[in-house]
Design brief:
Layout lengths: L1 E6 L4 E7 L2 E6 L5 E7 L2 E2 L5 H5 L11 E2 L32 E5 L4 E7 L12 E10 L2 E10 L5 E3 L2 E2 L2 E3 L6 E4 L4 E4 L4 E4 H5 L7 E5 L3 E6 L4 E6 L6 E5 L6 E7 L5 H4 L4 E3 L4 E12 L7
Antiparallel strand pairs: 1-2, 2-3, 3-4, 4-5, 6-12, 7-8, 8-9, 9-10, 10-23, 11-22, 13-21, 14-18, 15-16, 15-17, 17-20, 18-19, 19-23, 20-21
Length: about 290
């Protein structure tokens, strides 16, 4: 593995398995993966212009969602009046992460600990560790969330990968559940019908079987998200005219820390481990995969 500073001005580093397989990441902007090149192809969508404007939220890469996914009821003071309302998707994607290279297993280690900024929103002492392993045709995310507080700690966790696509007309989803929740309208729909509107913009939450895929026939590739329980919620989001699709593993739906549904509680001095992977395969239109 080779490690180098790619962009000093924007604090972007590159970790290379070889010349055709590498990731770029920005520790100062939420530990964000800004690029994944797999066999010479850029897998992730990334809006560089928006990234350079720090007044705008990032569109692209793989943002990290913690300690909530989505948003919470704006009228709810989750931790009392002494704490500010948690921003959408939490604070982890907005602050600096520490990092190091693990040469033994050829991985990038990202870590975030509670600090003065996080204590404005979240009254817990914690550490989040993410090991990102670069394999041929695959990225593996191994997550450990540690509660260093004296009380049990409520969390949700997610990743928000943006994938490059050729065009919406070339996309076919597979391995999806029968029904999903349309988060725009807050109703239940047949997944097939909802996914057929991907070119119009969708925001769908699915309780998956731990795997979800889509094929891009023009790029001749299939992208598969593997996210076993309790990381098995999959959110599919599109934002036309951007040529991208988000396929996101979450532990819990929006408002989970308020209504308690699928809320994860980590006991004092304990931790929770999660795992997800994203794999790329070539497809043959004459073979049913």
């Amino acid at each position: 593995m080779k490690f180098e500073l790619k962009d000093n001005k924007n604090n972007i580093f590159r970790l290379k398995k070889d010349e055709q397989n590498y990731i770029d990441f920005c520790p100062n902007r939420g530990g964000l993966l800004t690029n994944w090149t797999c066999n010479g192809e850029k897998i992730l969508y990334f809006d560089q212009i928006r990234f350079l404007n720090k007044n705008l939220s990032i569109r692209g890469g793989v943002p990290i969602l913690f300690p909530i996914c989505g948003n919470i009821d704006p009228d709810c003071l989750l931790f009392g009046s002494n704490y500010s309302q948690l921003p959408q998707h939490g604070f982890a994607r907005d602050i600096k992460w520490d990092f190091k290279l693990n040469k033994a297993n050829e991985s990038l280690n990202l870590s975030l600990k509670d600090n003065q900024y996080t204590k404005k929103y979240y009254p817990f002492s914690f550490e989040v560790k993410i090991d990102i392993l670069i394999k041929i045709d695959c990225l593996i995310f191994e997550v450990e969330i540690i509660n260093n507080s004296i009380n049990q700690m409520p969390i949700s966790f997610g990743l928000h990968p943006y994938f490059n696509i050729s065009d919406f007309k070339n996309i076919e989803f597979i391995n999806y559940p029968l029904i999903c929740i349309d988060q725009k309208r807050n109703n239940i729909e047949l997944s097939l019908d909802a996914l057929n509107n991907v070119n119009e913009g969708i925001d769908l939450l699915m309780y998956s079987s731990g795997s979800l895929s889509f094929k891009d026939y023009a790029h001749n590739r299939k992208i598969t998200l593997s996210n076993p329980h309790p990381f098995d919620i999959s959110v599919v989001w599109s934002d036309p005219p951007r040529k991208m699709i988000c396929m996101e593993p979450w532990t819990s739906p929006r408002n989970s820390l308020v209504d308690g549904f699928r809320k994860i509680l980590i006991p004092s001095t304990s931790s929770k481990k999660l795992k997800a992977s994203i794999c790329i395969n070539k497809i043959d239109e004459n073979v049913n995969q």
